[in-house]
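Colleagues,

Please find the record for the two-part complex below.
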Amino acid sequence: MQRNPQLNANGELQHLLSIEGLPRDTLLQILDTAEPFADVTEREVKKVPLLRGKSVFNLFFEPSTRTRTTFEIAAKRLSADVINLNIALSSQTKGESLLDTVANLSAMQADIFVVRHASSGAPYLIARHVKPHEHVINAGDGRHAHPTQGLLDLYTIRHYKKDFSRLTVAIVGDVLHSRVARSLIHGLTTLGAPEVRVIGPQTLLPAGVEALGVRVFHDMRAGLKDCDVVVMLRLQNERMSGALLPSAQEYFMNYGLTAEKLALARRDAIVMHPGPMNRGVEIDSSVADGPHSVILPQVTFGIAVRMAVMSIVAGN
Amino acid sequence: MRILIRGGRVIDPASGRDAPGDVWVADGRIAPPGGTPERTVEAKGLVVAPGLIDLSARLREPGYEYKATLESEMDAAIAGGVTSLACPPDTDPPLDEPGLVDMLRRRAKALALARVYPIGALTVKLQGARLTEMSELAAAGCVAFSQANAPFTDTQVLWRALQYAATFGYRVWLRVEDPWLAKGGVAHDGEVATRLGLPGIPPFAETIALGTLLELVRATGTRVHVCRLSTAAAVAMMRAAKKEGLPVSCDVGIHHVHLSDMDLGFYDSHCRLDPPLRSQRDREALAAALADGTIDCAVSDHTPVDEDGKHVPFAEAESGATGLELLLPLTLKWARERKLALATALARVTSDAARVLGSPSGRIEPGAPADIVVFDPEAPFRVTPETLRSQGKNSPFMGYELAGRVRATVVAGKLVYEC
C-alpha cells in the first residue's frame, strides 16, 4: 500500500482527504489553530492576510449550499481569492472528465482545491494528479469522508467538554450512507474518546462497522444512556421509505431524538447535527432549539476550522 | 516443419511426468523422437510444458477496438505462453449470432497465433430473455454458452436455457451473482468497503445465485462450468456439489488467488474487478481450493481497459484487469507460496482447463497437438506498461517484480514466439 497520500515527505498535511490515518498531533494542531480564528470571526474586521494572493477553487461536483458557503467565507476571511465552480451543472454534463476539469483549473493557477464529489475516493484521484504546490481539501466524497465536518464536530465537542478522555459519544441514524459519521468516528477514536456508539436499525449500519472501533446499539434508549454527546445524522429523503425504512414517521418513533429520550443521556449532554435538519424526522424541534443543542455554534466553529485547515495546508 | 526442443525439464501435468528430456514436433503434433530437425530450441535450464489454456480472455473484438484488437491481444497471448483461449461473448455486438462467431474465428485463424475458442451468448444480446440459436452457434464454432458478466434476473429463462442446452449436450458457463443483492455494489461488503465508503456486494449474492444454479443442474443435468468464484462459502458449496456427483466444474480469476479487498488501498481502480476482491479468508479458501482441485482451473479473466476507463473515481471505473501475460507468473507465484509441485500447479492452466474446454491440447505426448510453452520459472521481470504487449495496461500488479518468463511458444507445431 502507498504511504498516506495526504501527508508530504515530512509527514505534514499536504492535502486533507480523510481524518483516518492522521496523527493525533495533526488533529490537535488543526483544532488549536482554529481557536484564534474563532475570535477573528467575532471581530468587527473579520479578515487576516494569511492567504493573500492565493486562489481557492471551490469545486462542487455535487450540489451544496452550506458547506460551499462556509468554505467561501473561511477563504475570504483569510484574504484569498475564491472561485466557485458548480460543476454539477457545467462541464461534467458536457462530458469533460474529472481529471481534465482539474487540469484546466490548475492551468489557471490554483493553490487550493476544495472538492465535493458524489463518488467515494474522488479527492484521492485528484490529489494524485495535482501539481506539488497545489492542495486538495475534501469537502465530502460519497459515503467516505467529510473531514472538515468531522474536525468542526471535534472542535465543538472540545469546546464544551474540554477533553475527550472520559467521553461517551453516540452517533444516531443513517451511518451507512454518512461520510460525517465515518469522519467523526475516526477523529474520536484517534483523540482517545473511550466509548463511541452508533445507534440505528440494521438497514442503516454498514457491514463490519464495529471494526471502526464503535459499539453498536439498535435500541436508541439503551444507546443514549449516560452519553455526553449525541450526534444526530441527517436522513436523506430518498431513504425514508423503501427497502431500508418503512416511513419517516416510524423512523422518528424509533430513532428520532425527543426530549424524553434525551433525558436518558447525561444531564449536561450536548446535541449536535451536521445539518440541514429534518425536524420531526430525526430530531424534534424542542430538542433542536433546546438548551442542549449546539447546532448553530457548530456552524460558526466550522468557519474557524476551515480557516485553520486552509492556512495549515497552504503553509506546508 | 520438424522442431526439436532440446534438453529442457519436460512437464506433462496430465500424466504427472516431470523429467529432463527432448520434445519433438512434426506436422503440428508432438512427434516421437527422430529425424533431422529444421529448428532446434535450446531449453537447457528451462521448463517445457503444454501451452497455457485460458478459459476467459477478452479480445475486445468486435466493438471495443479502442481498448484492444485481436492483433494486440493475440500477441500478448503468445508472449504469455497462452496457446488456447476462450473468449466470452460480451463483445459489441455480443456473440449471439453465427456470422459474428464465424468472423471472429476467421480473423483469429488468419493471424495464426493462439487458438481462439468463442463462447456463444446464451441469450440474445445477453439480455437474459430469449435463447440464442445455440445449434447454429455451435456449428459456427462456439464451444460453450455463457452470459459473461451479464446478470440473469429471470430464473424461468435460466431454467429453460439449461434444459435446452442439456438437450444437445452443450456446456454452459455461468458466473454466479444475484443481481438484486449486487445492485450498485462495487466492492466486497465488509470492513474495507465500510471504511472507504464504497457500496458493497455481500458474499451471499454469490452463494444464493450458486444455490439456485446447482438446484437447476440437479433438475436438468446440464454440464455447467461456474466461472470466477470469489467466496469461501461458494467453494464449500462446489466441493459438496462435486462430491454429490453433479456435472459441474469451476474456475477462479488468478487475481483473486493473490489479492483481497485490503489491496484496494487508497481506491486503486485497478482493483475494481468483477466479482469484487473479497476478504483475506476468502482469498485463502480460493488459493487452497485451487490447490486441492475443488476449483478446476485458474483463468486470467483478461480484460483490457483503456486509461479513461480507470482514471476515474473507484466506483465509476470500468471493471477488469489485463492478465494474459500475467497468468503464468501469477500461477507460478501461487505454486511457490503453497509449495506445490510444478506439474500440479500447471495442470490448473493446462490439462484441467483442456478438460473443461473439451480440447485435445494441454498434454505433452506423441500425437497431441503441438501447443507448447518453454519458460524460465525463475527469471524475474517488472510489470510495466512497456513489458506488457497487451493494449490493456490496467493491472493491480503494475510495478511488481514477478518471476517466470516465456522463452518460446509453439502453436500447432509452429514456433510463433521466441525471446
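Residues 111 and 134 of chain A are 5 Å apart (CA to CA).

Comments are welcome before we finalize the supplementary table.
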